[in-house]
Amino acid sequence: MNILIGTVAAAALIAMTAAAPALAEDVQLMDGVTARGGDNPLSDAGKFKKDCPWVIGMSHFGVNANTWTVQVAHESEAAAKKNSCIEKFILLDAGFDQKKQVADIEDLIAQNVDAIIVQPVTSTSADASIAKAVAAGIPVVLHTGRIEGDAYTTEIQGGAEHFGKVMGDWLVQKVGNDGKIWVLRGLAGHPEDTNRYNGLKQALEGTNVEIIAEQHGDWQYDKGKSVCETLYLNNPEVDGIWSSGADMTRACVDVFKQFGAAIPPISGEGNNGFFGQWIRDGFDSISAEYAPAQGAAGVRAAIALLEGKQLYKHYDYNPDGWGIEKVKQYYRDDLSANVWWPTELPEEKLKELYGNN
């Protein structure tokens, strides 16, 4: 009798466990991503649960803005391809056009997709459309840029202030309390640019470090090189450079080499081309981490919601900066300068997209 009761109880427990939603803590979005502390509500269990197959849409703020944004698209598509429940993955490119992003999200709503992932062009460009999607019962995952509204279902945010402060704190140590620095910013108006810059300002608080030049290089190599050439010709006497993105860092390093000048301490980012430069030329630098695999994390968040799992409203991604020894572990001389680290792309895909041969 006791055996029978125990067997029935065990079976009931198994059934209850199978029916219960997975805890939010059990959902692994990406290495280094954690639920934010403090007031952080959970989505309702099973609210967005749907049977397979699914159609997931993504509004990308600008696929061809630079090599990092291209890889975000590749990482997102690869993550979607790995899940057999995703029948179709629709990636729309806003091209940094606010009106285009609004139209893209409303197009995805009209197609009755099962979930939408949004990388906002600006802090307000997607607010109204996201609210419409959620009102239509479509969960919305936000990443790579914060917005002013809060209608989205969940967000995964690389701490832009953290990113900027990691580089700023390092640079202050290198240039000293009275150093003079250049600041290379990203795309004007983009929330990531604004918030990374705010992180730099936090690092400069209480110091006498002076920003003697500040320009937007749009996170691009060509624009960054033009900016750095102009700054150098105007006044080459600079103690250090805070660069908001590795493509601009690479460009600035090339400018100093072009003029035969010593390369000042300059901040960088997890880009293969920059890593190669740093290793070869031996200048002082730090690599802030901002993985393009955030694209894959956004897809995994959408999958979790459609599986009926609960997610927290806010997730943060605030990794430490990388030194030269860690950089040497990641650098690949058999891949092009356009790869960004860390990545989740499989080896065969890396070689297909970025192989030097």
UniProtKB/TrEMBL annotation:
<feature type="domain" description="Periplasmic binding protein">
    <location>
        <begin position="64"/>
        <end position="310"/>
    </location>
</feature>
<dbReference type="InterPro" id="IPR028082">
    <property type="entry name" value="Peripla_BP_I"/>
</dbReference>
<keyword id="KW-0732">Signal</keyword>
<protein>
    <submittedName>
        <fullName>ABC transporter substrate-binding protein</fullName>
    </submittedName>
</protein>
<comment type="similarity">
    <text>Belongs to the bacterial solute-binding protein 2 family.</text>
</comment>
<dbReference type="InterPro" id="IPR025997">
    <property type="entry name" value="SBP_2_dom"/>
</dbReference>
<feature type="signal peptide">
    <location>
        <begin position="1"/>
        <end position="24"/>
    </location>
</feature>
<dbReference type="Pfam" id="PF13407">
    <property type="entry name" value="Peripla_BP_4"/>
</dbReference>
